[in-house]
């Protein structure tokens, strides 16, 4: 097992979070990564500092204008000759019929909701979050001996809500999509299995018309729950991609056994696809005490989840994304990692 992170991911520190008609306390805090890093230390596992793979894999997925916005928005924001606040944040959402003339127009074009503000150091963390994920993909591209079957990336900010040209849901660059596309240089078929509490509408959108990348997601029903406009069962893909987008929206309030019933269905879909590599978007926000949870997974449930992924006997890259019960992130990640390192393997039905 290899584990990756980078200290620059700590620099992004959101101060604002506008959701459902009110300002709320930001939940995507640097302290999340501090707690996650305690898990490999407790298990005596090395954390590899990510190296710079470059911007090209990012631009293979995201629009150049959008990436330029993420990189330069803050400097443009503070250059305006009036008090604009400490972060790039908009209450105007106009992705179309918008020429992007001025930083407010650019924010209206590229920020999809009120949960993805951009501060002074946000781009640095956003960039290194993507690079952390890319390090795992790069290892697989250069590994001829099959020695790196399990890799875990401690990434923040997360990525699965980020669209090709829009930030939202605490996400800016879509790490899962970026590494899936990067892996296609060598591997024919990539499966993304997403078990975050929220549907990854960004991943769905990016690969919706493709059959070389399977996206399957287990998440809370999006009815009156983020992302609210995507993640329904009838969304199956289009064109060549029809059937390669498979959603398993859970009714709100399911228990752990019901959660795993949905996970098992997703795993069966992945097995049928028979991918070369699996990318797992892991959300600890399915934990029973998480403020975002609409289900009730226990700490030991994360060990079970890892065992199910291990039983697929494929290279797996894990992206640790959601999870906002900060005091439990260390314990929950330890349980998840132990599922990969334990001798006993759960056989998926």
UniProtKB/TrEMBL annotation:
The domain of life is: Bacteria
- Keyword Metal-binding listed? The answer is yes
Cofactor(s) the record lists: Zn(2+)
Q: Which UniProt keywords apply?
A: Hydrolase, Metal-binding, Zinc
Q: Which residues form the Histone deacetylase domain?
A: 28-338
One Gene Ontology term from the biological process aspect of the record: epigenetic regulation of gene expression
Please provide, alphabetically and separated by semicolons, the GO molecular function terms listed in this UniProt record. Answer: histone deacetylase activity; hydrolase activity; metal ion binding
Q: Which Pfam families match?
A: Hist_deacetyl (PF00850)
Identify its protein family: Belongs to the histone deacetylase family.
Entry protein name:
Acetoin utilization deacetylase AcuC-like enzyme
Q: Which organism is it from?
A: Psychrobacter fozii
């Amino acid at each position: 097992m290899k584990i990756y992170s980078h200290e620059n991911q700590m620099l992004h520190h959101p101060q604002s979070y506008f959701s459902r008609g009110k300002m709320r306390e930001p939940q995507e805090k640097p302290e999340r990564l501090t707690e996650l890093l305690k898990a490999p230390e407790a298990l005596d596992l090395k954390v590899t500092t990510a190296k710079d793979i470059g911007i090209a894999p990012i631009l293979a997925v995201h629009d150049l204008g959008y990436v330029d916005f993420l990189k330069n928005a803050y400097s443009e924001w503070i250059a305006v000759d009036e008090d604009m606040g400490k972060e790039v944040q908009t209450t105007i959402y106009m992705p179309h019929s918008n020429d992007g003339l001025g930083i407010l127009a650019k924010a209206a074009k590229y920020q999809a909701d009120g949960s993805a503000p951009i501060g002074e150091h946000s781009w640095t963390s956003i960039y290194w979050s993507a690079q952390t994920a890319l390090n795992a993909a790069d290892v697989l591209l250069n590994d001829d001996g099959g020695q790196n079957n399990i890799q875990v990336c401690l990434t923040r900010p997360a990525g699965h809500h980020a669209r090709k040209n829009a930030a939202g849901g605490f996400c800016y660059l879509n790490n899962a999509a970026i590494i899936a596309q990067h892996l296609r240089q060598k591997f024919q078929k990539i499966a993304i299995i997403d078990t975050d509490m929220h549907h990854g509408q960004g991943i769905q959108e990016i690969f919706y018309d493709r059959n070389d990348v399977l996206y399957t997601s287990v998440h809370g029903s999006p009815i009156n729950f983020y992302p609210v406009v995507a993640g329904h069962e009838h969304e199956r893909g289009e064109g060549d991609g029809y059937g390669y987008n498979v959603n398993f929206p859970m009714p709100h309030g399911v228990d752990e056994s019901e959660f795993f019933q949905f996970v098992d269905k997703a795993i069966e879909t992945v097995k049928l696809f028979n991918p070369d590599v699996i990318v797992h978007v892991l959300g600890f926000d399915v934990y029973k005490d998480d403020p975002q949870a609409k289900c009730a997974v226990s700490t030991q449930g994360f060990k079970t989840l890892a065992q199910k992924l291990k039983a697929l006997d494929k290279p797996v890259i894990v992206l640790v994304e959601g999870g906002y019960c900060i005091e439990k992130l260390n314990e929950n990640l330890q349980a998840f990692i132990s599922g990969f390192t334990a001798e006993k393997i759960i056989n998926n039905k």
